[in-house]
Structure formats: structure tokens, C-alpha cells
């Protein structure tokens, strides 16, 4: 069995190595030459806001015990062999005897493979063996991760009831890790017996209550007596709710979220009407005299801490770029003959990330959208979805109805990437009007539900589009809002993007002042590239049939748009409608190679009549 050890060097490059369990335990008996762990433990009492700010943390070694990993071509960890080891971590240990006492307790379970002190000196890492009913383990990464989650939800309560200490409850994953540590006397049982796991997992089953919760239940009578002495029922209600739940206000989704204490692995969920009523009943059953209005007032107040999931994700990526061009590498997974695609995608990606930062008082929004064009089955939608990291997938929207304008404006404040799937189904009127307007908005002004006035919100969403048809752009004044790209083959979606490096690179580029817009020369190239994707109207086809362009005034003649239109009508007849004249005039004015000259009666165009 080998553990995987990862860390980043000073260039932010991910380094991966492996050690056998025995060698790892021998390694942690002594600190390194710099006394890295001991120095860290001296600082721990002063690190009030977590350990991320400690000076050595960016390059600290992380140990992954659940599996042996190797580094993929994309710079990510890829499972090589499943170890069948579950990582459990106890923190805030206040039991008599401290960490050593808990180490002895977990050693009493035959499934405990190893136990040792955490890097901070006040936590304990426990490694427990597990396996499926036949003693087997999945060797495919996705299945291994699913079974690991099942093992955590099933066996963590077993250890939790044994130990009177808080168990750290991160999102369980086969990639779970802990900081490299030091323990002079680590516990190790070579012949640990794996806990047997049934492969079918009944999701409705919940972990048993922790010791603290059970004791709280037994002592509820005393707590109730204390509460009766309190004169302020509102404060009692707040104390009761905060003891049972963690709350936060999601500033992106504009809703309050909660999770039960000691069950972090359930994750945060929205506080909807049913949850709110259940919490009210819990408070009232605890003999606290409040109404549902009192509970709602607290849950909807600014007493709750504010949480921005996008800011949180970008903060984790900040300063971790390894210097490689991951953004253009992602663009290269899209096969195309367009020589500008990589640079265009790079600029658009920077603009997308900049839009996520949701700054107020912007002058410009991300006003362009890549348009992926190919036949079906080329993984266009999969590629679009893969632009958003898993923890932010709620921000991907591919079912927006453009006719519902209020929904569209709200999505621009709460979505991160809007995929205009089947772009060819959007009418020319919507392309030239509503869509052209919203795609360049720097912010959105809407009246919130139950609000009393219109408010301005930062726009977060950027647009991307897909189509199975080529002739789809219909703006006669030019189509500079779209980066038309015709695919020459299926997009390679076989590798998961390295999201940390993608967004770390983007943040580094934005911090360096790289531009997030297309200048005049790039816009000219974009419009020239998009001409092959424009809808060619019958009038345009007739123009090419009866007229040529020229640079020589002696060979041609200057005609107004109306005169050219009338000439075409004389050949074609009444099928050419007058309402096409305005669009035809715009089309003439946008032709880059046509010579035009203003006369007293208006703009005239230099053309040659075909005989």
C-alpha cells in the first residue's frame, strides 16, 4: 500500500510522489531539518482565521491515504490503485489525556489501520480499513469515489460514538488529504480488518447522533429550565437555532442556507418554506415562545454571515498559477481551422472570469460570445458545461427562454455561463434586438420579487452558443458580438480540465492588466470571419446576380440603395417586398469592399450592372 504525497514548489508546480505506509510512518516520527511542523504548532494558537494564512502553507505537503495517485497530463491527480483506507479527523480535542487518550480508544477497533497526531498538534488522524462485501475494491476512479463516500457516511458514526471529540466533516472524497505531520509514537496495526460495506446504499439512512448530541438530548430538561429563566425569547430562539445549525446568506443566489451541526458532509441547503416551518416547530417544542414570523425575521436578517461561493472559489485559486498556458490548451481541444480561435477564446475567458468578480459600476460587460458550429455529436454542449468547475455547476444555464425577459435578467445576475443552445432557433428579431442589448450590459436593473423599487445588480453571466447550422447570424449592421467557430471534428472532452490552474492563470493575467476586450483590428477580423455564417437573404443573392463591385468610377456608376433595389425589382417582380429595403440598405453600408460616396440626395454606392 502506497500513500500519495503532493505539494507545490515556489513556481506553483504540482509535485507528486508516493511512500509505502511503513515508510510514511517512519517519516513522521521525526520532524524535518527546518522543524517545519513544530514551528507551525507554535503559531497555531494565534491563527484565529484558519491555517491558510500561515507562511509555509502554500508549499506544505499533503498526504492522500485513500488511494495511490499519479499525475495526469493535465496536471491533475489520477487514481492508480485503491487503498481502501478511510480518513477520519478529530479536532478540538478536550478529553482528559488529550490526543493520546483518543488514540488509545480508536486503537480498540480492529478496523483501525493507523492513528497519529495532526500537524497542528491538537487533532488526530485515524485511518480505517474498509472493503465491499467480497473483500474487493473498485479500481475505477468514479466508482471508488462513490464507495468512499458511502464508507464515510456509514462508518464515521461508529468512530464518532466512540470518541468524545468533534469530527471534522469535509465533503468525503477519494482525494481527501491531511497535512504532513509529526508524531513520535504513531499507532499502526498491520493486520487491521476492513469494515464491510454493502454496495447498495440507502440514502435515506442517516448517521447516528454524536455523543454530544445524545448528551444534549438527555440534558434537555435542564436546558429547558435555563431557558425559562430567560426573558428574551428571541435571543433564546437564536441561541437554539445556532446550536443546531450553521447558517449563511448566499449573496449570489440571494437566499439563506443551512446545514446541521456535526454533519458538514450533508452540505448547505436552501432554507425553503418547509424547512422554515420545521425549524419553527423545533423552537416551539423547546418551550421557546416565538412565532414563525420571528424565525423568518432572523433567517432573513443581516445578522447571518454573508457567503459568496464564486469569491470563495476564486480566492482558493489566487496565486497558484504554475506558469503554463492552460487556457489556450483548453481552446486547443476544440478542433477548428480558425487560426485566431485560441487567442479569441483566451480573451473571452479572461472577460468571463473578470465578470465573475461582480464589480459594481462597470462601464462594459463581456459583450462577445463564442459560437460553436458543427453537426450533432461533436460534444459542444459538454464542452460548454465543462467551463464551469464542479462546485459552481449551479451557475451553468442552458435552458434560458429569451422571451421571458425578467427571467433572463435575473439569470444574468445569478448564472455564470449561459449557453444559448441551438442558436439557430433564435429569431433574427431577437438576435438584432433583445439579445444584442443584453449581451453588452455591464449591470442589470430589475425589481426583485417582493421588492418596492428597481435595484441595480452586478452582472455575472457570460454567454456562449452552439448551433448545428452554419447560416445563423442575421444582424445586417454586423455580427461582432459572436466568435463564430466551425468545428472540424469532435471536441476532446476525455480529460477533466484543471480548474484550479485555469482560473489561477486567468486571475494572474487580470492582475497583470491584460485586456478583456477585442480592439478595433480584432473586431474587424471577427466580423470578416463571421460573414460565412451570416444568413443570406434573397435580396443579397439577387444583388450578386445582377451587380458587381468595382473600384473604378469610370467602369461603374453611383446608385442609391433605393435605385439598386428598384433595379432588382424590375428583374424579379413583386416578390421583392418594400419592407426589405431598410435591411438591404444596412447590408450595403456594411459591405467592406463596396465604395460609397455621399451626394445631396444621400449615400450612393459604386456598382457595375451585369449585362
From TrEMBL:
Domain of life: Bacteria
Domain BT4734-like N-terminal residue range list: 63-188
Sequence ranges assigned to domain DUF3874 in this UniProt record: 537-607
Domain Virulence-associated protein E-like: 317-533
InterPro entries attached to this UniProt entry: BT4734-like_N, DUF3874, VapE-like_dom
Pfam families: BT4734-like_N, DUF3874, VapE-like_dom
GO MF entries: helicase activity
Keywords per UniProt: ATP-binding, Helicase, Hydrolase, Nucleotide-binding
Residue numbers spanned by region Disordered: 207-226
Name of protein: Helicase
Classification of source organism: Bacteria, Pseudomonadati, Bacteroidota, Bacteroidia, Bacteroidales
Amino acid at each position: 500500500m502506497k500513500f500519495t504525497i503532493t505539494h507545490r514548489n515556489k513556481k506553483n508546480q504540482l509535485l507528486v510522489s508516493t511512500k509505502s505506509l511503513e515508510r510514511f510512518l517512519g517519516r513522521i516520527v521525526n520532524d524535518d531539518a527546518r522543524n517545519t511542523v513544530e514551528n507551525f504548532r507554535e503559531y497555531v494558537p494565534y491563527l484565529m482565521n484558519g491555517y491558510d494564512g500561515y507562511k509555509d502553507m502554500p508549499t506544505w505537503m499533503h498526504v492522500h491515504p485513500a488511494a495511490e495517485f499519479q499525475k495526469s497530463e493535465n496536471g491533475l491527480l489520477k487514481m492508480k490503485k485503491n487503498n481502501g483506507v478511510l480518513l477520519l479527523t478529530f479536532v478540538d480535542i478536550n478529553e482528559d489525556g488529550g490526543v493520546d487518550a483518543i488514540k488509545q480508544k480508536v486503537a480498540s477497533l480492529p478496523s483501525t489501520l493507523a492513528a497519529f497526531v495532526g500537524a497542528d498538534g491538537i487533532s488526530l488522524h485515524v485511518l480505517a480499513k474498509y472493503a465491499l462485501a467480497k473483500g474487493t475494491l473498485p479500481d475505477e476512479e468514479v466508482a471508488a469515489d462513490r464507495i468512499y463516500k458511502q464508507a464515510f457516511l456509514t462508518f464515521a458514526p461508529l468512530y464518532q460514538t466512540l470518541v468524545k471529540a468533534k469530527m471534522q466533516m469535509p465533503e468525503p472524497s477519494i482525494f481527501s488529504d491531511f497535512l504532513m505531520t509529526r508524531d513520535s509514537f504513531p499507532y499502526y496495526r498491520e493486520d487491521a480488518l476492513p469494515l464491510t460495506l454493502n454496495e447498495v446504499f440507502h440514502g435515506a439512512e442517516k448517521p447516528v447522533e454524536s455523543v454530544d448530541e445524545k448528551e444534549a438530548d438527555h440534558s434537555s430538561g435542564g436546558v429547558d429550565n435555563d431557558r425559562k429563566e430567560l426573558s428574551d425569547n428571541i435571543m433564546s430562539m437564536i441561541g437554539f437555532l445556532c446550536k443546531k445549525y450553521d447558517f449563511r446568506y448566499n449573496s449570489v443566489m440571494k437566499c439563506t442556507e443551512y446545514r446541521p451541526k456535526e454533519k458538514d458532509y450533508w452540505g448547505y441547503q436552501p432554507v425553503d418554506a418547509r424547512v422554515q416551518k420545521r425549524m419553527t416547530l423545533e423552537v416551539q417544542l423547546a418551550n421557546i415562545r416565538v412565532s414563525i414570523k420571528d424565525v423568518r425575521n432572523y433567517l432573513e436578517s443581516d445578522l447571518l454571515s454573508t457567503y459568496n461561493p464564486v469569491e470563495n472559489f476564486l480566492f482558493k485559486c489566487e496565486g497558484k498559477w504554475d506558469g503554463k498556458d492552460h487556457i489556450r490548451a483548453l481552446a486547443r481541444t476544440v478542433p477548428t481551422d480558425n487560426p485566431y480561435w485560441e487567442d479569441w477564446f483566451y480573451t473571452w475567458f479572461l472577460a468571463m472570469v473578470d465578470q465573475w468578480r461582480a464589480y459594481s459600476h462597470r462601464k462594459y460587460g463581456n459583450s462577445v460570445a463564442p459560437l460553436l458550429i458543427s453537426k450533432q455529436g461533436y460534444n459542444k454542449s459538454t464542452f460548454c458545461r465543462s467551463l464551469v468547475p464542479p462546485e459552481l455547476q449551479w451557475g451553468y444555464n442552458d435552458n434560458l427562454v429569451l422571451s421571458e425577459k425578467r427571467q433572463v435578467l435575473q439569470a444574468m445576475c445569478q448564472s455564470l455561463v449561459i449557453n444559448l443552445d441551438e442558436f439557430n432557433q433564435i429569431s433574427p428579431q431577437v438576435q438584432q434586438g433583445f439579445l444584442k442589448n443584453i449581451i453588452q450590459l455591464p449591470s442589470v436593473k430589475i425589481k426583485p420579487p417582493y421588492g418596492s423599487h428597481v435595484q441595480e445588480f452586478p452582472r455575472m453571466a457570460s454567454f456562449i452558443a452552439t448551433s448545428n447550422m452554419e447560416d445563423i447570424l442575421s444582424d445586417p449592421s454586423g455580427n461582432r458580438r459572436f466568435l463564430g467557430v466551425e468545428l472540424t471534428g469532435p471536441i476532446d472532452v476525455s480529460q477533466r480540465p484543471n480548474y484550479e490552474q485555469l482560473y489561477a492563470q486567468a486571475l494572474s493575467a487580470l492582475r497583470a492588466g491584460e485586456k478583456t476586450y477585442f480592439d478595433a483590428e480584432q473586431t474587424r477580423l471577427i466580423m470578416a470571419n463571421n460573414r460565412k455564417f451570416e444568413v443570406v437573404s434573397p435580396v443579397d443573392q439577387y444583388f450578386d446576380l445582377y451587380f458587381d463591385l468595382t473600384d473604378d468610377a469610370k467602369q461603374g456608376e453611383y446608385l442609391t440603395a433605393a435605385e439598386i433595389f428598384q433595379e432588382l425589382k424590375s428583374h424579379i417582380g413583386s416578390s421583392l417586398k418594400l419592407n426589405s429595403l431598410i435591411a438591404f440598405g444596412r447590408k450595403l453600408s456594411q459591405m467592406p469592399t463596396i465604395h460609397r460616396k455621399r451626394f445631396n440626395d444621400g449615400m450612393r454606392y459604386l456598382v457595375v450592372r451585369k449585362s
